[in-house]
Amino acid sequence: MRQWSVEKPERLTFDEVSRLNVRVVAGRLAVLAGDGPATLEVTEVGDAPLLITHDDDGVLTVTYRDLTRDGILDGLMSRVRDGLAGDPQALRASDRRVTLTLTVPADRPVNVGTVSASAVISGFRDRTSIKSVSGDIVLDGVSGEISADTVSGDTESRGLVGDLSFKSLSGDLTVAQGKPRRLSATTVSGRITADLELPPTGHVTMNSVSGDIVVRLPHAVETDVKIRSTTGRIETTFTGLDHSAQAGMSALTGRIGGGMASLSAHTVSADVTLLKGGRA
Amino acid sequence: MSPVFGHGRLRLYLLKLLEESPRHGYEVIRLLQDRFLGVYSPSPGTIYPRLARLEEEGLVTHEVVDGKKVFTISDRGRAELNARLDELAELEEEISDSVRDIAREVKEDVRETVKSLREELTQMARDVRQGTRHEERQARNDHREAWREQKDEWKRQKSEWKRQSGEWKDDWKRIWASGFTGEGSSAGDDRLGQMLAEFVEEVRRDAAGSRVGEETLATAQDALYDAARRIRDTLR
Questions:
Q1: Closest-approach residue (CA) in chain B for A237
Q2: Smallest Cα distance from B231 to chain A, Å
Q3: Cα dist. B20→A39, A40, B14 in Å?
Q4: Do B113 and A34 touch (CB under 8 A)?
Q5: Looking at the partner chain, which of A103, A120, A260 has a beta carbon nearest the beta carbon of B106?
Q6: Do β-strands A249-256 and A242-246 pair in parallel, antiparallel, or remain unpaired?
Q7: d(Cα B96, Cα B102) in Å, to the nearest integer?
Q8: Residue B110 and residue A253: Cβ atoms within 8 Å?
C-alpha cells in the first residue's frame, strides 16, 4: 500500500487503479474517464492535508485522515437530514477547500462523497455512486449503475444510460437525454425534470411530496402510465390516457402504444406534467 | 488544443511516450487521445510520418512484432529528452491545464443543456396548464347551453327508450347465451403489463450484482420461452 499526504498543489499518477473512492468537504471535484493511467491533480488544498492511499488491490482513495472510517460521511449526511448540524469543527469549509481533477479508466467503479463541494463526473461505465449534502452534482455520459443522493444539492445530468437512482431532500433533479433501463427518483421538495427515451422494458418510478414533476417521452413511446397525486394537478399532452379524479386523489393511467415499459409517479401536492415529444 | 503541440512539442511528447515503454503507432495515437480525453485525436497521417522522422534522426528504432512496428527510444532519443526536461515539465503542466479545461467545459456544457431543457419543458408544462384552464372556463360558459340541450335530449331519449326496451330484451338474451367474452379484458391487460414490468425489474435487480454471461442468457432464453408458451396456452 502506498500513501501520500498532499498539502500543496501536486500531480500524481497511479498504475492499475481498480476502483476510486473520494471523500471531500468543500471546493470543486472533477472525475473524468480516460483510458490512460489514473491521475490526480490537486490545484488547491486547504489547511488540512489530503490523504491519498493506493492499496494493493488497486483501490485509490482520496480523503482526509479523520474521514477515513467507513461510512462517516453517511452518518454525517443522515444527521444533516435529520436537521441536526454536523460537528462544526469537522466541517470548517475554509480548512477543507480543495480543487481536484481525477482521471480514471472508464470501466472502474467510482464512489464519491462530498459535503458542499460540487462534483463533475463524466464517462464512466461501471458503478458510479455519489452522495453530497449541499454540493451540486453534474453527470455527463455515464452508463451502468448510477446513484446520486443529495440533501439540498442539485443533480444535473446529460446522456445517462442504465440503472439510475436519485434521491434528494430539496435538490432539483434534471435528466437530459436520459435512456434509463430503470430510473427511480425520490424527492421531498426538489423539482424533477426529465427528458427520457424509454427502452422496451424501461421502468421509471418517481416519488415527490411537493416538488413538481415534468417528464417528456418520445412521440412514439410504448409504455404503461400510472400517475397519482393527492392534491396536485396531473396533465398530459398524450391522448388516450384516462384521467380520473376522486376526492383526495387524482390519477392518470393507461397505456401508450404496446410494450412493457412502465412509468409511474406519485406525488402529494406536486403537479405532474407528462409531455409528448415532437415527431423525430 | 493545437497550441499545446506547437514548436516541436509533439516530437518531445512522442519521445516521452516511447521512453515510458516501447509502443506501436496505434498505441501512441490512443495514448494521446486518452491523455486529452478524446479532445485531441491525432490521425495516423500525423503520427506515423513523425515516428519515421524520429527514426531517420536516430532518436528511435523499430522492430516488427506480430506484423506491427514497435518503436523503442534510442540513447540519442533519451539524451534529447533529458536535455529538454524543463520543456517537458511545462508541457505536462499545460496538458493538465487542458484536462482541467475539459472538466470545466463538460460542466458548462451539461449545465447549458440542462438549463435550456428545463426552460423548454417548464414552458411546455405551463402551456398545457393554461390550455386546460382555458378549456375549463370555456366549459363553464357552455354549461347553461348544454343544460338546455340536455333536457331536450332526455325528452327525445325517453321515447326512444320505450321503443328500444322491446329490442333490448332480445339483445340481453343473446348476450347471455353467448357469454361475456371480452368483458374486463382491459383491466386484465393492465395488470398483465404491470406483472411483466415488475418481473423484469425484479430479475434486473437480481442480475445487477453479477456478471451476465452467455450461459445465463441461454438459461434465461429457455425459461422465458417456456413461460411464454404456458401463458399462451391459457389464452387459447
A1: B128
A2: 16
A3: 16, 19, 10
A4: no
A5: A120
A6: antiparallel
A7: 10
A8: no
**Residue A55 above 60 pLDDT?**
yes
Measured CA distances, A55 to A40, A84, B50 (Å): 15, 35, 39
Burial (0-12, 13-18, 19+ Cβ within 10 Å), B96: middle
- In eight-state DSSP terms, residue A88 is T
Residue range A194-211: average pLDDT?
92
* The three grid cell numbers given for residue A86, joined into one nine-digit string: 454536523
- The answer to whether A259 touches A200, Cβ cutoff 8 Å, is yes
Q: How many CB atoms lie within 10 A of CB A21?
A: 16
Task: Give the gap in angstroms from C-alpha B4 to the nearest C-alpha of chain A.
Answer: 18
B230 residue type, one letter: R
Please tell me which of the candidates A35, A181, A275 has its beta carbon nearest to residue B121.
Answer: A275
Q: Hey, of A213, A214, A215, which one would you mutate to test binding to chain B, going by the most B CBs within 10 A of its CB?
A: A214
Distance CA A190, CA A132 (A): 15
Whether the CB of B224 is below 8 Å from some CB of chain A: the reply is no
Interface of A with B in 199-218 (CB under 8 A): 201, 203, 212, 214, 216
Residue B206 has pLDDT above 60, yes or no: yes
Question: Within an 8 Å CB–CB cutoff, is residue B46 touching chain A?
Answer: no
CB of B220 within 8 Å of a chain A CB? The answer is: no
User: What digits encode the pLDDT tens for the residues A21-43?
Assistant: 999 999 999 999 987 788 899 98
Nearest to A261 by CA among A233, A229, A223, A225: A223
- B14-33: burial string, b at 16+ Cβ within 10 Å, e else: bbbbbbeebbbbebbbebbb
Whole-angstrom CA distances from B145 to B73, B99, B142 are: 93, 69, 6
Q: Which residue has the higher pLDDT, B216 or B155?
A: B216
Amino acid letter, residue B214: E
Task: Determine which of A42, A174, A198 to mutate to test the interface with B (most B C-beta atoms within 10 Å).
Answer: A174
Q: What is the pLDDT of residues B67-101, one digit of tens each?
A: 888 999 999 999 999 999 888 888 777 777 777 88
Q: How far is B24 from chain A (nearest CA, A)?
A: 15
The 3-state DSSP class for residue B28 equals: helix
Q: What pLDDT shows up at residue B173?
A: 46
- Interface check for B193 against chain A (CB to CB < 8 A): the answer is yes
Q: pLDDT for B101-137, tens place per residue?
A: 878 888 888 888 899 999 999 999 988 888 877 776 6
- Residue with C-alpha cell 411483466? B196
Residues 106-145 in A contacting B (C-alpha not used; CB under 8 Å): 120, 122-123, 138-140, 145
